[in-house]
Amino acid sequence: MAGLSSRSAVAIHALAMLANRRGGSLTSAEIADSLGSNPVLVRRVLGRLRDAGLVCSTEGRGGGWSLARAPRDITLYDAYTAVEDGQIFSRHTHPPSSACEVGRTIGVLLDDEFRSAERALEEQLGRTTIAGLLQRILASGSGAVSH
Protein backbone atom coordinates (compact mmCIF):
# COMPACT_ATOMS: atom_id res chain seq x y z
CA MET A 1 0.00 0.00 0.00
CA ALA A 2 1.51 3.32 -1.08
CA GLY A 3 -0.49 5.40 1.39
CA LEU A 4 0.01 8.92 2.58
CA SER A 5 3.56 10.22 2.74
CA SER A 6 4.94 12.87 5.07
CA ARG A 7 4.86 15.35 2.15
CA SER A 8 1.33 16.41 3.14
CA ALA A 9 2.42 17.24 6.69
CA VAL A 10 5.45 19.16 5.38
CA ALA A 11 3.27 21.06 2.89
CA ILE A 12 0.63 21.99 5.47
CA HIS A 13 3.31 23.04 7.99
CA ALA A 14 4.96 25.26 5.37
CA LEU A 15 1.65 26.80 4.29
CA ALA A 16 0.74 27.56 7.92
CA MET A 17 4.13 29.22 8.47
CA LEU A 18 3.71 31.31 5.34
CA ALA A 19 0.19 32.30 6.38
CA ASN A 20 1.51 33.34 9.77
CA ARG A 21 4.06 35.57 8.00
CA ARG A 22 1.09 37.62 6.68
CA GLY A 23 2.34 38.46 3.23
CA GLY A 24 6.05 38.21 3.96
CA SER A 25 8.29 35.48 2.67
CA LEU A 26 10.31 32.72 4.26
CA THR A 27 13.30 30.79 2.96
CA SER A 28 13.21 27.03 2.64
CA ALA A 29 15.92 26.94 5.35
CA GLU A 30 13.64 28.82 7.78
CA ILE A 31 10.79 26.43 7.08
CA ALA A 32 13.14 23.43 7.36
CA ASP A 33 14.35 24.69 10.75
CA SER A 34 10.79 24.72 12.07
CA LEU A 35 10.21 21.23 10.68
CA GLY A 36 13.52 19.87 11.91
CA SER A 37 14.01 18.78 8.32
CA ASN A 38 16.30 19.16 5.34
CA PRO A 39 15.90 22.32 3.19
CA VAL A 40 16.21 20.19 0.04
CA LEU A 41 13.12 18.17 1.01
CA VAL A 42 11.29 21.39 1.86
CA ARG A 43 12.22 22.92 -1.53
CA ARG A 44 10.87 19.85 -3.33
CA VAL A 45 7.56 20.11 -1.50
CA LEU A 46 7.41 23.89 -2.03
CA GLY A 47 8.09 23.32 -5.73
CA ARG A 48 5.02 21.10 -5.95
CA LEU A 49 2.97 23.68 -4.05
CA ARG A 50 4.20 26.31 -6.53
CA ASP A 51 3.21 24.09 -9.46
CA ALA A 52 -0.28 23.87 -7.93
CA GLY A 53 -0.50 27.66 -7.63
CA LEU A 54 -0.48 27.69 -3.81
CA VAL A 55 2.87 29.42 -3.25
CA CYS A 56 5.26 31.57 -5.25
CA SER A 57 8.96 32.18 -4.93
CA THR A 58 11.21 35.16 -5.37
CA GLU A 59 14.88 34.62 -6.13
CA GLY A 60 17.84 36.60 -4.90
CA ARG A 61 18.66 38.51 -1.77
CA GLY A 62 15.57 39.02 0.33
CA GLY A 63 13.73 36.40 -1.70
CA GLY A 64 11.91 33.37 -0.48
CA TRP A 65 8.55 31.68 -0.55
CA SER A 66 5.16 33.28 0.00
CA LEU A 67 1.51 32.33 -0.41
CA ALA A 68 0.05 32.80 -3.88
CA ARG A 69 -3.52 32.82 -2.51
CA ALA A 70 -5.17 33.98 0.67
CA PRO A 71 -4.93 31.42 3.51
CA ARG A 72 -8.74 31.30 3.65
CA ASP A 73 -8.70 30.13 0.02
CA ILE A 74 -6.32 27.20 0.56
CA THR A 75 -7.63 23.98 2.08
CA LEU A 76 -5.72 21.08 3.52
CA TYR A 77 -7.08 19.11 0.58
CA ASP A 78 -5.42 21.56 -1.83
CA ALA A 79 -2.09 20.89 -0.10
CA TYR A 80 -2.68 17.15 -0.12
CA THR A 81 -3.47 16.97 -3.84
CA ALA A 82 -0.49 19.18 -4.68
CA VAL A 83 2.07 16.88 -3.09
CA GLU A 84 0.66 13.34 -2.97
CA ASP A 85 0.66 10.88 -5.84
CA GLY A 86 -1.96 8.27 -6.56
CA GLN A 87 -4.51 6.66 -4.34
CA ILE A 88 -4.14 6.32 -0.58
CA PHE A 89 -5.41 2.76 -0.60
CA SER A 90 -4.47 0.17 -3.13
CA ARG A 91 -5.01 -3.51 -3.64
CA HIS A 92 -2.35 -6.17 -3.35
CA THR A 93 -0.04 -5.99 -6.36
CA HIS A 94 -0.69 -9.61 -7.41
CA PRO A 95 -4.17 -10.52 -8.65
CA PRO A 96 -5.94 -13.01 -6.37
CA SER A 97 -6.85 -16.48 -7.52
CA SER A 98 -10.11 -16.66 -9.43
CA ALA A 99 -10.43 -20.22 -8.15
CA CYS A 100 -10.84 -18.86 -4.62
CA GLU A 101 -14.27 -17.73 -3.44
CA VAL A 102 -12.77 -14.73 -1.61
CA GLY A 103 -10.31 -13.93 -4.40
CA ARG A 104 -13.06 -13.73 -7.04
CA THR A 105 -14.98 -11.01 -5.21
CA ILE A 106 -12.82 -9.15 -2.73
CA GLY A 107 -11.24 -6.77 -5.25
CA VAL A 108 -14.50 -5.09 -6.25
CA LEU A 109 -15.65 -4.84 -2.65
CA LEU A 110 -12.34 -3.39 -1.48
CA ASP A 111 -12.38 -0.87 -4.31
CA ASP A 112 -15.78 0.38 -3.09
CA GLU A 113 -14.61 0.57 0.53
CA PHE A 114 -11.35 2.31 -0.38
CA ARG A 115 -13.14 4.86 -2.60
CA SER A 116 -15.56 5.62 0.23
CA ALA A 117 -12.70 6.11 2.71
CA GLU A 118 -10.83 8.37 0.28
CA ARG A 119 -13.95 10.49 -0.29
CA ALA A 120 -14.31 10.90 3.48
CA LEU A 121 -10.68 12.01 3.74
CA GLU A 122 -11.12 14.47 0.85
CA GLU A 123 -14.24 15.93 2.46
CA GLN A 124 -12.57 16.32 5.86
CA LEU A 125 -9.42 17.93 4.46
CA GLY A 126 -11.55 20.19 2.27
CA ARG A 127 -13.37 21.58 5.32
CA THR A 128 -10.24 23.01 6.89
CA THR A 129 -8.50 26.04 5.46
CA ILE A 130 -4.95 27.14 6.19
CA ALA A 131 -6.45 30.26 7.83
CA GLY A 132 -8.62 28.11 10.09
CA LEU A 133 -5.73 25.83 10.97
CA LEU A 134 -3.47 28.79 11.75
CA GLN A 135 -6.17 30.27 13.97
CA ARG A 136 -6.29 27.00 15.94
CA ILE A 137 -2.47 26.87 16.12
CA LEU A 138 -2.28 30.40 17.49
CA ALA A 139 -5.12 29.75 19.95
CA SER A 140 -3.42 26.62 21.26
CA GLY A 141 -0.22 28.61 21.79
CA SER A 142 -2.11 30.86 24.19
CA GLY A 143 -3.36 27.85 26.15
CA ALA A 144 -6.84 27.61 24.63
CA VAL A 145 -7.06 24.65 22.25
CA SER A 146 -10.08 24.83 19.96
CA HIS A 147 -11.22 21.96 17.77
Strand content: 5-15%
Mean pLDDT: 88
Q: What Rg do the Cα atoms give? A: 19 Å
Low-confidence stretches: none
Share in helix: 55-70%
* Molecular shape: elongated
Counting helices, strands and paired strands, the structural category is mainly alpha
Order of helices and strands: HHHEEHHH
Spatial strand arrangement across the major sheet = 1-2
Please describe what this structure looks like.
This protein is mainly α. Helices cover about 55% and strands about 5% of the residues. It contains six helices and two strands. Strands 1-2 form a two-stranded antiparallel ribbon. A hairpin with a 5-residue loop joins strand 1 (about 55-60) and strand 2 (about 65). Helix 4 (about 75-85) crosses helix 5. The longest helix is centred in the C-terminal third of the chain and has 27 residues, at about 100-125. The mean pLDDT is about 90.
Structural key phrases:
6 helices, elongated, 147 residues
Topology:
Blueprint: H1 7-20, H2 28-35, H3 39-51, E1 55-58, E2 64-67, H4 76-83, H5 101-127, H6 130-141
Antiparallel strand pairs: 1-2
Helix pairs in contact: 1-3, 1-4, 1-6, 2-3, 4-5
Explain briefly what this protein structure is.
The chain is mostly helical and 147 residues long.
